[in-house]
Amino acid sequence: MKSNIAALVIMSASLGMISSHSYAQVAGTQPLGVSVEESTDLILGWSAKKSVLNKPVYNENGERVGVIHDIIIAPDHSVSYAIVAANQFLGVAHHDVAIPIEQLDYTNGKLVLAGATKAAIKAVPEFEYTKMKATPTPRSEFPHH
């Protein structure tokens, strides 16, 4: 019994050394994927799909005022706007509006847009995707790359 446990420990240690050598990322040599520092950012970050998209937006009084439909990312890679659908309740047609991301907060487990009401969001000019470019601009066309 002891020899079986010892063999498992030795085999596990050997496999661990083999796998760590074959999959280790070395700074400056990894052509695809993320660096070790970026991995930490991933672990500490959050998923837009799981945490934000299609989630309700409330005002500071706890009243539901819309739903997040999309996140707009600027060419500099910053998250710039949340597209909030107003009036999407019980299958009624919605009115998408662009809200600067810094106006949203995450409070008590809810996305909060302070000062918002259904009427106020409905009064914001409608956001139209047709005004956006159909395809992203290549990175080489930006002056800072």
TrEMBL record:
Pfam family membership, one: PRC
Signal peptide extent: 1-24
Database matches in InterPro entries: PRC-brl_dom (IPR027275), PRC_barrel-like_sf (IPR011033)
Segments forming domain PRC-barrel: 51-113
UniProt keyword list: Signal
Protein's organism: Paraburkholderia ultramafica
Official protein name in the record: PRC-barrel domain-containing protein
